[in-house]
């Protein structure tokens, strides 16, 4: 048994309620900082690419002797009724999600060999690097490379922090879900607000460096760990997060003694491939509804949302799109914070309703029968509610229904569901965008 001197972080709070609040807040900040880089990087990369495109247009105008406005108008003109952009936003989405999907597919099989402390340091370094690369980029490929770094950080962070939650009371999943929900809204408003007051994208991205630092401080300074938590060493009993020495600590932290496992409930030794296949098979009922929800959700966001444009109203096309994104993120925040109030076990219901949303809006784009933008606002908000609720309820019931021995592996593996759905939605957005823009 490892002595207390070898454990970097020990429980110092005698008040169990204070420890629970610290852990809840710690996971909230981890969720916020982990997902905020993903949200901000998407917008920031588009801004920088747009600036580089403008620079290229200016160069072309200088070489041809034509006004830059004429050249730019020639590049972007189209006869479509949908006011289409040259390239679907699904293109940038793919650059932001494919590395995450790749790491989520492979990492759960080997990530247990890397201690949690090193995982967090790697995520923070990747996030810092992404902001710096995109901020100082002078070429398109450098910006894309920065987006890839942000994607790797977010993907590894999500599966690591979901796995980390099994060392604590299940209440921390509420904090994680709420934090990840807040990331979209906070990231969009924070980035847009700084740009609105006159800061350049480069300066704004440099300010965003504070968030990876906040992740580091939250993980190492705010969370209260079990006495034998393997911070800098490999878990000797793979996916068996606590031992008998931690039993009293967990019982003090938990209001539900069923969350605490006894030594008899666990079998020592690493999971075999047969056991891992058994766990993966059991996760199918959770992963496919999550993937379907996120496919329909991001098909709307990246394939249809930019085409839902109402003419002759106060809001411009850009304003409408901005409000769509804001209301979507608000819905995600509300539903990801709802786990403390109610849980919904029938996860397939979220998939069905989100698919209905996608099909309805697909026909709305094609036949343009919606009478008002306010109706679209309500549908987009409802879309965010469904996506956020599907996420938090999926991982809540995975944590609840898996045995202690399998829980850490299950939480890491199931995180592939949302990324798989998002990647497929990004691919589907291309033909849909091209079809409507050709009308």
From TrEMBL:
Q: Which Pfam families match?
A: CLN3
**GO annotations of cellular component type:** endomembrane system; lysosomal membrane
Chief subcellular site?
membrane
Bilayer-crossing regions:
27-46, 116-134, 140-168, 180-199, 205-225, 347-367, 373-397, 409-430
Q: Which family does it belong to?
A: Belongs to the battenin family.
* Keywords assigned: Lysosome, Membrane, Transmembrane, Transmembrane helix, Transport
Q: Give the protein's recorded name.
A: Battenin
What's the superkingdom here? Answer: Eukaryota
Q: Which gene encodes it?
A: CLN3
- State the compartments where it is located: Endomembrane system; Lysosome membrane
GO biological process, any:
regulation of intracellular pH
Coiled coil spans: none
Q: How does it sit in the membrane?
A: Multi-pass membrane protein
Organism, per UniProt?
Nothobranchius furzeri (Turquoise killifish)
């Amino acid at each position: 048994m490892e002595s207390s001197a070898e454990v970097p972080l020990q429980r110092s709070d005698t008040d169990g309620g204070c420890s629970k609040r610290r852990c809840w807040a710690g996971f909230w900040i981890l969720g916020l900082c982990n997902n905020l880089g993903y949200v901000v990087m998407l917008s920031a990369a588009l801004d920088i690419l747009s600036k580089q495109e403008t620079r290229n247009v200016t160069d072309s105008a200088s070489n041809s002797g034509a006004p830059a406005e004429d050249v730019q108008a020639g590049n972007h003109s189209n006869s479509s009724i949908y006011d289409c952009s040259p390239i679907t936003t699904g293109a940038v989405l793919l650059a932001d999600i494919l590395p995450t999907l790749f790491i989520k597919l492979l990492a759960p099989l080997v990530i247990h060999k890397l201690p949690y402390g090193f995982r967090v340091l790697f995520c923070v370094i990747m996030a810092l690097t992404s902001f710096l690369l995109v901020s100082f980029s002078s070429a398109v490929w450098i910006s894309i490379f920065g987006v890839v770094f942000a994607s790797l950080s977010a993907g590894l962070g999500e599966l690591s922090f979901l796995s980390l939650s099994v060392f604590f009371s299940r209440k921390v999943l509420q904090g994680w879900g709420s934090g990840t929900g807040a990331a979209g809204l906070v990231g969009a408003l924070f980035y847009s607000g700084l740009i609105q007051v006159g800061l350049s994208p480069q300066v704004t991205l440099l300010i965003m460096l504070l968030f990876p630092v906040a992740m580091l401080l939250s993980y190492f300074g705010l969370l209260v760990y079990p006495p034998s938590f393997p911070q800098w060493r490999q878990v000797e009993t793979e996916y068996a997060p606590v031992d008998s020495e931690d039993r009293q600590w967990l019982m003090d932290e938990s209001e539900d003694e069923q969350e605490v496992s006894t030594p008899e409930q666990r079998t020592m030794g690493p999971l075999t491939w047969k056991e891992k296949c058994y766990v993966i098979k059991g996760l199918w009922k959770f992963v496919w509804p999550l993937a379907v929800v996120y496919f329909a959700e991001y098909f709307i966001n990246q394939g249809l949302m930019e085409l839902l444009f109402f003419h002759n109203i106060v809001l411009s096309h850009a304003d409408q799109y901005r409000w769509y994104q804001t209301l979507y993120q608000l819905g995600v925040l509300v539903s990801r914070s709802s786990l403390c109030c109610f849980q919904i076990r029938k996860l397939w219901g979220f998939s069905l309703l989100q698919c209905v949303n996608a099909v309805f809006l697909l026909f709305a784009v094609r036949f343009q029968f919606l009478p008002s933008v306010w109706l679209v606002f309500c549908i987009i908000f409802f879309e965010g509610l469904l996506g956020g609720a599907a996420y938090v309820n999926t991982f809540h019931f995975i944590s609840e229904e898996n045995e202690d021995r399998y829980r850490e592996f299950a939480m890491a593996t199931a995180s592939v569901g949302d990324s798989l759905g998002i990647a497929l939605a990004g691919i589907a957005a291309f033909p849909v965008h091209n079809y409507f823009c050709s009308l």
